[in-house]
Design brief:
Structural class: alpha+beta
Strand order of the largest sheet: 5-8-9
Number of helices: 4
Number of strands: 10
Shape: elongated
Helix content: 40-55%
């Protein structure tokens, strides 16, 4: 849409209006005289007030299109970010096959309990390596201030040394990637030192 600058003064930052707005202002004196407009389907006759109403409707539709376009652009960017986050978290199935093989060997072995325990520790180490490659880390818990964004409180208990409102015990580990929680830690929160019994 072409634009016409009122006052013609570029230096003063004069208000810019669309050609349609300027034309409507200049045609205001026409009142109810019919105006003939050429369209794709032939000539159309309407009053000046009808023309102003149609122009307002066109402006409203243009605003709605701009709003929907911005909304769609935000949706597209958010979806791309979520996809990228999901790919970070995803573990390739092939990465798990070696670990599964080691579990099978451990179960088939006839060694003593110490050898089995050592084998399980090696398998656990492999799993941790895989988790760390995905930049997944444990949520810090015991001794930390309780944070509902990272911790899920299952109870509250007195504790001799841990201050009130801090995590006293971790019942189940939590995991995160940066500030994004994959699983919150299930924790017991300290209610402070136990009250002295009299």
């Amino acid at each position: 849409m072409s634009e016409t600058r009122l006052n013609g003064d570029n230096e003063t930052g004069a208000e810019v209006k669309s050609a349609m707005e300027v034309a409507l202002e200049r045609a205001d004196h026409l009142d109810d005289e019919p105006i003939e407009i050429q369209t794709e389907n032939g000539p159309v006759s309407m009053s000046f007030d009808e023309l102003k109403e149609k122009a307002a409707q066109a402006d409203e539709l243009a605003n709605q299109v701009l709003y929907k376009s911005a909304e769609f652009d935000n949706f597209r960017k958010r979806t791309a970010r979520e996809r990228e986050d999901l790919l970070k978290e995803t573990v390739r199935v092939g990465d798990l096959f070696d670990i599964l093989d080691h579990f099978d060997r451990a179960l088939e072995s006839e060694g003593d309990a110490d050898a089995l325990r050592e084998g399980l520790q090696l398998i656990r180490g492999q799993l941790w390596t895989l988790i760390e490659r995905k930049e997944i880390e444990r949520v810090p818990s015991v001794g930390e201030p309780f944070d509902p964004n990272f911790h899920e409180a299952i109870s509250e208990q007195p504790h001799e040394t841990i201050p009130q409102g801090n995590v006293a015990t971790e019942f189940q580990s939590g995991f995160r990637i940066g500030d994004r929680v994959l699983r919150p830690s299930k924790v017991v929160v300290s209610s402070g030192p136990p009250a002295n019994e009299k």
